[in-house]
Each structure stands twice: as C-alpha cells, then as structure tokens.
Design a protein that fits this description.
The protein is mainly α and 123 residues long. The chain is 63% helix and 7% strand.
Length: 123
C-alpha cells in the first residue's frame, strides 16, 4: 500500500483519514485485525508515535477497538461504519457544492452538469 502524505497538512490527520477510508471502503472488513502500529508506521514512513496517535483517535471514535495483547480490530458494528461513510460523503458533497458555487454555478446548473456527465459515462 502506497502512502502519499502531503507536507502541507498534518501527517496525523492524513493517516487518520486514510485508515478511516480504508475501513469504510471495505479494505478492512468489520472485525478484521489491523496491522501493528510499527508495521503501519514503517509502511507509511512515519514515526510510530504519529501512527499511535491516529490509532488512538480511531479507538476514541469507536471504529477501532483494542484487545489486550492481541492488537487492534475494526468494529463489527456495520451501522457505525455506514454512518461514518455517510458523514464523509455528506462532507465531500458539501465541499463539492461550495467549489461549484465559487465557480458561479447554481444548484440547477450543477445538477444538469452532473446528469450530462453521468450520461456520458453510460456511452
């Protein structure tokens, strides 16, 4: 897995977002064991403390839980994963809409453009 981290944004946040996306996209199945902090830190070429901080935040949100001496696991609560997925989708759509408004598009124009693009994909 290739980690592309930007220097302009906090590394911790990028790691957190990446693991969260891996969970909600199904890369890690509910109940699956995550690689260790050291393994993931080495893979991402970051300090293990930075990776540990991201894992701790994922535990705080409930997407990940720790089993003593066994490691960390993805929650088995599929509803929580779907809710997280929906939250991220709403956030991305809001950002998209704001970007389109800044370009001068209104709601109806955005919808029309999206329909045109979707029809173009069908061909």
């Amino acid at each position: 897995m290739s980690w592309e981290l930007e220097s302009a944004r906090p590394i911790f946040m990028q790691i957190l977002e990446r693991i969260r996306m891996d969970i909600i996209s199904g890369k890690y199945e509910p109940g699956a064991k995550l690689p260790s902090v050291r393994e993931m830190a080495a893979d991402a070429s970051v300090n293990p403390n930075t990776m540990q901080r991201a894992f701790a935040e994922l535990e705080r949100t409930g997407l990940v839980y720790a089993k003593r001496t066994s490691g960390r696991f993805i929650t088995e609560d599929r509803e929580m994963i779907e809710a997280c997925k929906a939250d991220i989708a709403r956030e991305k759509i809001s950002q998209f809409m704001e970007n389109m408004r800044q370009l001068g598009y209104g709601k109806e124009q955005i919808i029309e453009l999206m329909q045109q693009l979707q029809e173009g994909e069908k061909e």
